[in-house]
Amino acid sequence: MNEINHCSVRHFIKSNDARREYGREAFLTCSIEEKAGKYKASKKGGRMKNAVEPLPRIEDFVKRPTFSVKGPIGRSKSTDQIFVRAGHGEVDIDTRGVGPSSPPPHPLDRVMYAPCMLRAHLWKIREPKPLKWKVEVPDKAKMSAHIKETARYLGADLVGITRLHQEFVFENDRSGEPIDASNFTHAIIVAKAMDYDRIQTTPSWCDHVEVGKRYQEEGVLTTTLAIYIAELGYRARASFAGADSVLYVPLAVYAGLGELSRIGIMLTKQYGPRVRLGAVLTDLPLEIDHPIDLNVGSFCESCKKCATNCPTGAIAAKEKTEVKGVMKWKVNEVACYRYWRKDPMNWQDCIRCVAVCPWNKPNTSFHRGVAGIVSNYPSSHKAINFMDDLFYGKKPKRKDQPASFNDYRMTEEQYMQMIQDPEINIKFLAPEKH
Q: What does residue 250 show for φ and ψ, rounded to 5 degrees?
């Protein structure tokens, strides 16, 4: 059963083809292993080969999931992301005279973001041409273990594998060009953990640089892994910030890296929500992982610390909302982004929700033990929340940035001169086209 998807077997069990082929009573009374064997035989014989494999039910893996699929999932567009819409002038946001695509005033921040960012130079090589020679993969489990080991060697803190569910592929990229991922069957999801202390300075240039640093590393990591898979003779495409082909969070959930949180991003057992994600899409034969149950649904319902600490109230404190066929907590992205742009000389992002989350703690043996208790015993959640408020505060204080970090930032006058220079203010949305 290791190489068969349980959801696919259930789909086959419910199909009329199965009942007609094997007889209703005989088929319904046989074991799940026998059903799986009949499913594999049907695939080999050509029956159902055109059937679209259904998205696994999250309820089959998580007792109290943070989201549920209520209907057909509508594909998202990269051009609908808030910062892309803001860059196109589609959102009413007072940017204090600083455009959303303008480079930041902090020199180290400019290294991480357009127009100087390293990842922009990776966009052209993120889908390498595979060799004509192709390595044979008789054991998908062994290949999956090898790919995970390679990803960790290249710098991934977490890695998981899932089928590439087309519902989570963007319809278009940030420039509006359509995205086609039909040649890929799997998604390798990687996560990079951000530095705990630097995230505690948010909103600041310090935390923004930390986010950008992890994006840079994700770009190098996923592109290198894609090139490696191409050297094995298989198709591969790196997907990372700025060159996104997919929605990372749902794929990461199905790859077993964590659960969706109230914040709207993934919460991991090891680092809480303090991670950045990237992916490699491929047709390399791989064994998939499955969603894990960390009891995040129960925890987020009783906690709400992110919602009470959000400076704009952008995080849902109460009911879930249906979005594109999925019932989940919906973040008010316009209110969130307005705060990002509130003081562009001192910050251009905010992840206060990540900083205050009780799951976001240093990766010590003590905190790993607490995470183990929280993920296994929902009855502990109220006590854990009480202790977190007691030791860290209901509204934790923001940490100061490292000494001298802001010493070489531009003055406001110098900054305004820079962003009005047409040779410097290269569009962030597609710098490789300019």
A: -60, -40
Q: What is the pLDDT of residues 344-367, one digit of tens each?
A: 899 989 999 999 999 999 989 999
| Nearest CA-CA partner of 150 in 190, 184, 107, 100 | 190
Helix (H) or strand (E) holding 279: strand 275-282
State pLDDT tens for residues 102-129. 778 899 998 888 656 788 889 889 999 9
Domain layout of the chain by residue ranges: 6-54, 59-402
pTM of the predicted model as reported, rounded to 2 decimal places? 0.85
Per residue in 392-432, pLDDT tens?
A: 999 999 999 998 998 999 999 998 888 887 766 554 434 44
Token look-up 């495409």 returns: 237
Q: How far is CA 392 from the centre of its chain?
A: 27
Contacts by 48-56 with C-beta closer than 8 Å and gap 24+?
A: 48/12, 48/15, 48/17, 51/11, 51/15, 53/5, 53/7, 53/8, 53/11, 53/163, 54/7, 54/8, 54/11, 55/7, 55/165, 55/167, 56/5, 56/6, 56/7, 56/254, 56/290, 56/291
